[in-house]
Amino acid sequence: MSRHAFLSAGRSGICAAALLISTTLLMSGCAGGPNNEAKAADGKDGKSEEKKVEAVPVEVAVASHRGVAASYTGTAALEPRAESQVVAKSSGVALAVLVEEGQQVRAGQPLVRLDPDRARLAVAQSEAVMRKLENNYQRANRLVGQQMVSAADVDQLRYDVENARAQYRLAALELSYTTVTAPISGVIASRSIKTGNFVQINTPIFRIVDNSRLEATLNVPERELATLRAGQPVTLLADALPGKSFTGQVDRISPVVDSGSGTFRVVSTFDGGAQSLQPGMFGRIRIDYDQRADALVVPRLALLDDGDPAVFRVRAGKVARVPVTLGYAEGAWVEVREGLAAGDQVVTAGKVALRDGTAVQVIVPADPKQVAKATPAAKAGSAP
After folding, report:
1. In terms of CB atoms within 10 Å, which end of the chain has fewer, N or C?
2. Of residues 278, 341, 353, 289, the one with CA closest to residue 315
């Protein structure tokens, strides 16, 4: 075989082999067509299932009607409406201490009896001088008609008698000071005297507070001046009495705004002893200045923190960002005046991962009682 014939035969064999491989691949492709279509379909279903899994789990609440009050809150310590430091107006030894701390007393009630001997002797002395001068004056009056005593002497005796009477009354007053009495009604808050102690004049020995009426003073910003007025209801929560709330009212409002702090004083009053409230207790005070009995409210947790007030409303498994107009806020609730209707579901947890149109899955459904209560109102009103 010649060299050209050999090369020609080789080329023919290579072409035949290439043709055979191409035919095999083509047949394999045709044979696998249905399987590939099935795999493609399976892939499509997998993406669909994956898309369902991507729904964001959220918790929701229902917009419903309830009462809500507009209020101003602050903190203050309770103070007694009346308080008195009882001091000794005379000096002497305390013969008897008649009251103890915590005891209720009334105005004028004896508290301490001091040694009265010195004051009693002073009264007797001044009384003797007064009686002598009164007799001399009466005798001079009888003799003046007989011109045995001059009119000037009679006048001098009259002045001496008046002075002696004043001295006697002063001595009697000093004697009364040996019995220390309560200047006001209230409770003995502190006692700094014991039986047998020598008491100096003007020494504080008791402190009495009137706890029947307690006051709390708030320094309120001037922007609230137009909303607060005397007689408005006040609620007090005392740290020392957890779980209890106490009611009072605004007693008086200062008409002057402090130029340095930009605040004005609001004084609220509460009943004291009968409600276990005591002077010095620290309390949280809320003054309700307006109230809406049937306001549309949602939880505060539903509000978004990205600027203007808005919430995520859930409908048909998706959320929509809805701007809202807010009204009064009370506790965990906030009033919605525009943007929602009763019965609308709003997201309260899971808001961070949401965008407008995001698919969601409600993992904590709204309270059915809330929905039932809100549904009639939802039909009556129009959703924004």
Report:
1. N
2. 341
